[in-house]
Design brief:
Chain A: Belongs to the ABC transporter superfamily. Chain A: Keywords: ATP-binding, Cell membrane, Membrane, Nucleotide-binding, Transport. Chain A: GO terms for molecular function: ATP binding; ATP hydrolysis activity. Chain A: One of its GO terms (cellular component) is plasma membrane. Chain A: InterPro entries: AAA+_ATPase, ABC_Ni/Peptide_Import, ABC_transporter-like_ATP-bd, ABC_transporter-like_CS, Oligopep_ABC_C, P-loop_NTPase. The complex is a heterodimer of chains A (365) and B (345). Chain A has a domain of 84 residues. Helices cover 28% and strands 19% of the residues of chain A. By secondary structure, chain A is of the alpha/beta class. Chain A is globular, with a radius of gyration of 22 Å. The two termini of chain A are 39 Å apart. Chain B is α/β, with parallel strands linked by helices and 345 residues long. Chain B has two domains: 216 residues, Rossmann fold, CATH 3.40.50.300; 96 residues, no CATH class. In chain B, the strands form two sheets. Chain B has a seven-stranded mixed sheet, sandwiched between helices. In chain B, helix 5 packs across helix 6. Chain B is globular, with a radius of gyration of 21 Å. Chain B starts with 10 loop residues before the first strand and ends in a 16-residue tail after the last helix. Classes of the chains: A alpha/beta (365), B alpha/beta (345). The interface between A and B is large, with 43 and 44 residues. The structure holds adenosine-5'-triphosphate (ATP) (2 copies), iron/sulfur cluster (2 copies) and magnesium ion (MG) (2 copies). One iron/sulfur cluster (SF4) binds next to loops of chain A.
């Protein structure tokens, strides 16, 4: 059994709090933001999954949904099973037990959200105290010291205030906090964005070794596909609230099949590769407004290889077979056709048999 | 007043030092500690290095926003005069593009006003509308009229960064200094903005100094790269050379930690170093993997690593490296000061 199983998850931010009242549920009103629109995936114990996609595509919303940390205006449907239990129907008491000890999260921008007037030791000790009220102060101090050393900070830094630490050190504190109650799963939302390359490398090596040593599962979110490809086993790419491509990290990064996945991968230069030297293709256009999505494939207004019926069918994830999505031949060279069954799936009509034309007939029937 | 010198670099730093009074009375921070740097017309130079190494301070100094403690900034071969009149004239030629487009645009100003502001400061009002439209379309916002009345919140991140660039272009400068121009942007938008910088160079001959800690960006667009460590440029030369066959152990470490890099990453431990306590000898020696591994000792330079400053690199376009070890192993006739022999210790 997988540690985490997400099935058909949707998250809609209601336009106002009152609209979230039970009688209105289920009907999408004007101004509602469907931030996550039917996401399914599984994560096994000890596995590392990377989630990428451009700003606003719903990554953080999904992460917060996994721990039910969303604001009241967010309406969820679907299933999130953690260790077999459905998180969406779980009682608050049980949920509290799962947070921190089952699964913990390193929030996006969290290094700026440490309490400025509290010593970091106290902040790291807080989840332990909440979780095991019987543990004494001395034991908590000992444990905090251990956690700090674990993330590469001397135990005596427990007395420091956040402003006395650099960005990289504060991010380590956040990771120590996430580890405080020995979780089985860590969700890390942009853990290294805004840190410079050397500090980023320090944090990533740290996360990797902690995950490996303790057999923790990792869901790591970033818009930097190259960072995810390097750290994770599998990669999922989100676009407009959906996963549009998912598979082994190297395949998705090196030979994406979805045109959006290809554009995202091409945006990262490979130093030494002449193809990315003074040759840049940005992805034209803007990410769609989640409250006003294009018909059919939501990527079609920006897709360089769209077909005539792409504004009619909304493809779901489909195992990729041995066909290539045409591209300019420069940015994703040499991978050739790969056989079906490497576990890569893409939501594009071009991976469907007959380019998904049969779906057009079905939908217009 | 002297005439511009033909063929002179459009913008140069000449042995520039910038010191700040450090916080908590820790003495003085030598944020820029001896830098020579030239930017030729039409050239794109990337200034890279880790956080706190002095990139922004050097960029601000080149723009005349910060006065060097010693050394000087030259514009077309003429030392910069720090009078408001001279600076105003200088600004027409050398423009700044700031990091974070959301922070540098006023949320209550329309796109038109944001771009026109630069012109108005210089009192050029007559053909304002045309010039704003022209700057917007050169920045890739077409047709420009469609964007005139929009507010920043009605634009995407990439469009906002384009507006900031249009604001810099409206005065028709010959150089722009861009501080982390794509750091806060999405991967897909990043390509779009970098392609724009390349196109402006090709079409208008615009030179640029791009400040970044993103080495991939340097690979994408720059002709030349200067690697900065703790207030100094420690290695410089053409991008193809420096990023594929770096000789300074610091440049090698920076490249090795990139996710795509082959081989084992050399993760330097500890925080970025402190400009109030610059180590004696080679300023990198306390973190240098080549010294720590014994390779420097084997080459007989370890004493110099700890005791002799490898010196300030010269300006110009030559390949140079401020490292005793690299100068020794890469030169067939043993120890020498290599291309930087003329540099001051
Ligand atoms: N509390 C909220 N109320 C209403 N809409 C929201 C709320 N939080 C997020 N959204 C919207 O939901 C969508 C998804 O946001 P989310 O924060 O999940 O994106 P993201 O992929 O994490 O982006 P980023 O890379 O910028 O962090 C966006 O359109 C956003 O504006
Ligand atoms: N006005 C100032 N007063 C005192 N110290 C300063 C001042 N400005 C910069 N410094 C110090 O000078 C050093 C260089 O700072 P600078 O902003 O130039 O670095 P940077 O390379 O641009 O870093 P980043 O990549 O984080 O932007 C830092 O140690 C910084 O703390
Ligand atoms: S379904 Fe059509 S529009 Fe969508 S990504 Fe595939 S080819 Fe492009
Ligand atoms: S001079 Fe010595 S300490 Fe400095 S970078 Fe070179 S080998 Fe390392
Ligand atoms: Mg987010
Ligand atoms: Mg800076």
């Amino acid at each position: 059994m997988s540690l985490l199983e997400v099935k058909d998850l949707t998250v809609t931010y209601r336009a106002s709090t009152s609209a979230a009242s039970p009688e209105k549920r289920g009907s999408a009103g004007a101004g509602d933001v469907p931030a996550v629109r039917g996401v399914s995936f599984t994560l096994d114990a000890g596995q590392k999954l990377g989630l990428a996609g451009e700003s606003g595509c719903g990554k953080s919303t999904m992460a917060l949904a996994l721990l039910r940390l969303l604001p009241k205006t967010a309406h969820l449907t679907g299933e999130i099973r953690f260790d077999g239990e459905d998180l969406l129907t779980m009682s608050w008491g049980r949920l509290r037990a799962v947070r921190w000890a089952g699964a913990s999260i390193v929030f996006q921008g969290a290094m700026h959200s440490l309490n400025a007037v509290q010593r970091i030791g106290a902040q790291i000790g807080e989840p332990i105290r909440l979780h095991s009220p019987k543990v004494g102060d001395a034991e908590i101090r000992r444990r905090v010291g251990e956690l700090l050393e674990h993330v590469g900070l001397p135990a005596r830094r427990a007395d420091a205030y956040p402003h006395e630490l650099s960005g990289g050190q504060r991010q380590r504190v956040m990771i120590a906090m996430a580890l405080a109650c020995d979780p089985q799963l860590i969700v890390a939302d942009e853990p290294t964005t805004a840190l410079d390359v050397m500090i980023q490398a320090q944090i990533l090596t740290l996360i990797e070794s902690l995950v490996a040593e303790q057999g923790i599962s990792l869901l790591m979110i970033s818009h930097d596909l190259s960072v995810l490809a390097d750290t994770c086993d599998r990669l999922a790419i989100m676009y407009a609230g959906r996963i549009v491509e998912e598979g082994p990290a190297a395949t998705v990064f090196g030979a994406a099949r979805h045109p959006y996945g290809q554009a995202l991968a091409a945006a990262f230069p490979r130093i030494g590769d002449p193809a990315s030297r003074r040759r840049l293709q940005g992805l034209a256009g803007d990410p769609p407004d989640p409250a006003d999505l294009p018909a059919g494939c939501s990527f079609h207004p920006r897709c360089a290889v769209r077909l005539g019926h792409c504004d009619l069918v909304d493809p779901s994830l489909w195992p990729t077979a041995g066909r290539e999505v045409p591209d300019d031949g420069e940015s994703h060279k040499g991978k050739g056709n790969r056989p079906a069954g490497d576990g890569t799936r893409a939501a594009c009509v071009r991976v469907l048999p007959d380019d998904g034309l049969s779906l057009v007939e079905k939908e217009s029937a | 007043m002297s005439e511009p010198i033909p063929n002179a670099p459009i913008l140069s730093a000449e042995d520039v030092h910038v010191e700040f009074e450090a916080r908590r009375g820790d003495g003085r921070a030598r944020a820029v500690d001896g830098v020579n740097l030239d930017i030729a017309p039409g050239e794109i130079v990337a200034l890279v290095g880790e956080s706190g190494c002095g990139k922004t301070t050097l960029a601000r100094t080149l723009l005349g926003l910060e006065k060097p403690t010693s050394g000087r900034v030259l514009h077309r071969g003429i030392p910069l005069a720090y009078t408001s009149k001279a600076l105003k004239r200088f600004r027409r030629d050398v423009q700044l593009v700031l990091q974070d487009p959301s922070g540098s645009l006023n949320p209550r100003h329309t796109v038109y006003d944001a771009v026109a502001e630069g012109l108005r400061i210089h009192g050029d009002v007559p053909d304002e509308r045309e010039r704003v439209a022209d700057a917007l379309s050169r920045a890739g916002l077409r047709p420009p009229e469609r964007f005139f009345l929009r507010f920043p919140h009605e634009l995407s991140g990439g469009q906002r960064q384009r507006v900031v660039i249009a604001g810099a272009l409206v005065l028709e400068p010959n150089v722009i200094v861009a501080d982390e121009p794509v750091a806060s942007l999405d991967a897909s938008v990043r390509g779009e903005i970098l392609a724009l910088l390349l196109r402006l160079r090709d079409e208008l001959g615009l030179a640029a100094l791009v400040v970044t800690h993103d080495l991939g960006l340097a690979w994408n667009i720059a002709d030349r790269v200067a690697v900065m460590y703790l207030g100094r440029i420690v290695e410089t030369g053409p991008v193809e050379k420096i990023l594929t066959a770096p000789e300074h152990p610091y440049t090698q470490a920076l490249l090795s930690v990139l996710p795509e890099a082959p081989g084992a990453p050399v993760v330097l431990q500890g925080e970025p170093p402190d400009p109030t306590r610059i180590p004696a000898g080679c300023r990198f020696h306390v973190r240098c993997p080549v010294l720590a591994s014994g390779a420097a000792a084997a080459a007989g330079v370890d004493g110099r690593c700890r005791g002799d400053d490898p010196g300030v690199l010269a300006g110009g376009t030559a390949i140079q490296v401020a490292c005793h070890y690299a100068r020794t192993v890469s030169s067939p006739d043993g120890p020498s000061d290599g291309p930087a022999a003329a540099a001051r210790p």
